[in-house]
C-alpha cells in the first residue's frame, strides 16, 4: 500500500511507540481491506471509557495506558498514550453517578468510567457521552473524512451531513485518534457513494416520527448493507425524524449511507443518486401493506398490555423531544407500576434542566438520564417484563438483550402507557 513520508515516519516510531503501534494497526487493517492508501481525518468518534470486566482488569494491571494499548490499539506493548492527534470524542458509554439509585447498574462501573473520563479528558478526548455527537457540537462538514463508530451516528454523518465515514470499530478509531488517518475505502471514495436500491413511497404519506422509523426499518430490510434511495410521498423530515429513520435502517440492515434527493445533500436528483447511468433500478414500493408489515414486525414481541417500563430517546433525544414529552406529562402522574426514562446527551439534559422540562418530567415520576441507554448498559428498571418505546431500534434490540416484551408506538402512546400502565397503541 502507498504510505506518505509522514505516515512512514509515524510507522517507524518518529512520534513515539504508541503512534507507531497505531500506524501498524492501520496498515494491517488496510491490508485486510485491500485499501491502497490512508485518508487524512480530523474527526474521530470512538469509545475509550465504556466500562467492562476486561477493561477493569487491564486498568488494575497497568492503568488506562495499558487498557488503551490493548483495547484501542491491539497492542501488548507497554505504551504511554500521548495527546489525541485530532479532535476525538467519546460516544455513549455507561451510566454516570447521577444514575446511582435510579438505574440498576454497578457502582464499580460508574467509578471506573469516571476515572476513565478524567484520564482521556486530560488526553484531549471530548467526553460528549452520546450516540448523537452531531446534536452536541460535533458536526463534520460535507465531504469531510471522519472515523466514527455507532451505526446510528455513522448513517447520519454520511447521509444527512454528507461527511464520509465507514462504521469503524474500537481499535480503528483508537488508531485514528493518535494518527489522524483511516483506511481510504468504502464510504470515503466517490465511486462508492451512489445509490443501489430505489424505494418509492406510495399510497400513504410518510409524515410522522413513527412513520419515518418504520420507513427506515423497511429500507434497511430492502438494502441490507447497501445504499437505499428514497423517493415518493413524504413530508420534509426534521433532525429527529432523520435520526429515527437512519437508526432504524442501520438496525434492520447495516445501512451506512442513504439518499433522499431534494432533502439529503449529496445527490440532488434520483438520476444523480444512481450516477446518471440511464435506466433506474426497479423501485421497491413502500405502501400501506408494507407500512402495516413493519408495524406488526416491531410489535411482534408484545403480548401483555401491562407496561412496566417506557423508554424514550433512542437515539438520544433532542431538546425538542424532551420538551414534547414534558408537555404530555405536565400535571400528570405515572402509574405506580411503570417507570419512564428519557435518554439524552448530557449537554442537552443541562438545557432541558434549565428550560424546566426535567422538573416537569420528574414531578410526574419520570427521569431524564444521560450518557447511556438500557441496550448499551444492559440495565432497565428491576423486574421489567414489558416495555414500550417510540424507537424502532430499541424495540428491535432490547427484547433480545434483556429478554423482555416490547411495544412500539408513538410518543403519545408511550406517555399514555406510562401514565396508565396499559398499552393501547395501534397503527393509525
Ligand atoms: Fe443510542 Fe442506545 Fe439507541 S446508544 S442509538 S440510545 S441503542
Radius of gyration: 22 Å
Number of DSSP strands?
14
What coarse outline follows from CA principal-axis ratios? globular
What ligands does this structure carry? FE3-S4 cluster
Please outline the major beta sheet.
5 strands, parallel
Question: What features would you highlight for this structure?
Answer:
single chain, 428 residues, alpha/beta, 5-stranded parallel sheet, 4-stranded parallel sheet, 16 helices, 14 strands, binds FE3-S4 cluster
In short:
The chain is α/β, with parallel strands linked by helices. It has helices at about 5-10, 15-35, 55-75, 105-120, 150-160, 170-180, 210-225, 240-250, 270-275, 290-300, 320-330, 345-355, 355-365, 375, 390-400, 410-420; strands at about 40, 45, 90, 125, 145-150, 180-185, 195-205, 230-235, 285, 310, 340-345, 365-370, 385-390, 405-410. FE3-S4 cluster binds near residues 316, 343, 373 and 394.
Description:
The chain is α/β, with parallel strands linked by helices and 428 residues long. The chain contains 16 helices and 14 strands. It has helices at 5-11, 17-33, 53-73, 107-122, 151-159, 170-179, 209-223, 239-252, 270-273, 288-298, 319-329, 346-355, 357-364, 374-377, 392-402, 411-420; strands at residues 38-40, 44-46, 88-90, 125-126, 147-148, 181-183, 197-206, 228-234, 284-286, 309-312, 339-344, 367-370, 386-389, 405-408. The strands form 4 sheets. Strands 12-11-10-13-14 form a 5-stranded parallel sheet, with helices on both faces. A 4-stranded parallel sheet has the order 4-3-2-5. Strand 7 (197-206), helix 7 (209-223) and strand 8 form a beta-alpha-beta unit. Helix 3 (53-73) packs across helix 6, helix 5 (151-159) crosses helix 8 and helix 8 (239-252) packs across helix 15 (392-402). The chain binds FE3-S4 cluster. The site of FE3-S4 cluster (F3S) has 13 residues, from helix 14 and helix 15.
Amino acid at each position: 500500500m502507498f504510505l506518505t513520508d509522514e505516515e512512514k515516519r509515524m510507522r517507524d516510531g518518529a512520534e513515539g511507540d504508541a503512534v507507531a503501534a497505531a500506524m501498524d494497526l492501520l496498515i494491517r487493517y488496510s491490508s485486510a481491506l485491500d485499501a491502497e492508501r490512508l485518508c487524512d481525518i480530523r474527526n474521530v468518534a470512538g469509545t475509550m471509557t465504556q466500562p467492562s470486566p476486561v477493561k477493569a482488569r487491564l486498568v488494575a494491571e497497568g492503568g488506562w495506558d495499558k487498557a488503551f494499548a490493548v483495547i484501542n490499539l491491539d497492542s501488548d506493548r507497554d505504551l504511554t498514550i500521548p495527546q489525541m492527534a485530532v479532535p476525538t470524542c467519546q460516544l455513549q458509554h455507561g451510566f454516570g453517578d447521577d444514575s446511582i439509585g435510579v438505574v440498576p447498574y454497578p457502582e464499580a462501573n460508574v467509578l471506573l468510567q469516571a476515572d476513565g473520563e478524567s484520564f482521556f479528558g486530560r488526553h484531549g478526548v471530548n467526553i460528549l457521552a452520546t450516540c448523537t455527537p452531531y446534536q452536541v457540537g460535533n458536526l463534520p462538514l460535507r465531504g469531510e473524512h471522519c472515523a466514527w463508530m455507532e451505526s446510528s451516528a455513522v448513517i447520519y454523518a454520511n447521509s444527512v451531513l454528507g461527511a464520509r465515514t465507514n462504521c469503524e470499530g474500537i481499535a480503528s478509531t483508537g488508531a485514528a485518534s493518535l494518527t489522524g488517518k483511516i483506511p481510504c475505502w468504502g464510504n470515503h471514495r466517490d465511486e462508492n457513494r451512489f445509490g443501489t436500491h430505489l424505494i418509492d413511497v406510495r399510497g400513504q404519506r410518510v409524515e410522522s416520527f413513527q412513520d419515518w422509523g418504520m420507513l427506515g426499518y423497511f429500507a434497511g430490510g430492502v438494502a441490507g448493507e447497501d445504499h437505499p434511495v428514497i423517493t415518493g410521498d413524504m413530508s420534509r423530515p426534521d433532525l429527529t425524524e432523520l435520526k429515527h429513520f437512519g437508526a432504524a435502517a442501520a438496525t434492520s440492515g447495516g445501512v451506512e449511507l442513504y439518499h433522499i434527493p431534494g432533502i439529503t445533500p449529496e445527490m440532488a436528483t434520483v438520476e444523480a443518486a444512481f450516477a446518471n447511468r440511464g435506466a433506474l433500478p426497479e423501485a421497491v414500493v413502500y405502501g400501506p401493506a408494507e407500512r402495516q408489515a413493519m408495524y406488526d414486525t416491531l410489535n411482534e414481541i408484545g403480548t401483555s398490555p401491562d407496561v412496566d417500563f417506557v423508554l424514550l430517546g433512542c437515539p438520544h433525544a433532542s431538546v425538542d423531544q424532551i420538551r414534547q414529552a414534558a408537555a404530555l406529562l405536565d400535571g400528570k402522574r405515572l402509574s405506580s407500576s411503570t417507570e419512564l426514562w428519557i435518554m439524552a446527551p448530557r449537554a442537552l439534559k443541562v438545557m432541558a434542566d434549565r428550560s424546566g422540562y426535567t422538573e416537569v418530567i420528574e414531578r410526574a415520576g419520570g427521569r431524564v438520564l444521560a450518557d447511556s441507554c438500557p441496550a448499551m448498559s444492559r440495565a432497565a428498571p428491576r423486574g421489567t417484563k414489558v416495555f414500550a418505546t417510540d424507537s424502532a431500534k430499541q424495540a428491535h434490540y432490547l427484547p433480545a438483550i434483556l429478554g423482555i416484551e416490547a411495544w412500539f408506538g408513538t410518543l403519545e402512546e408511550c406517555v399514555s402507557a406510562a401514565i396508565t400502565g396499559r398499552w393501547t397503541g395501534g397503527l393509525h
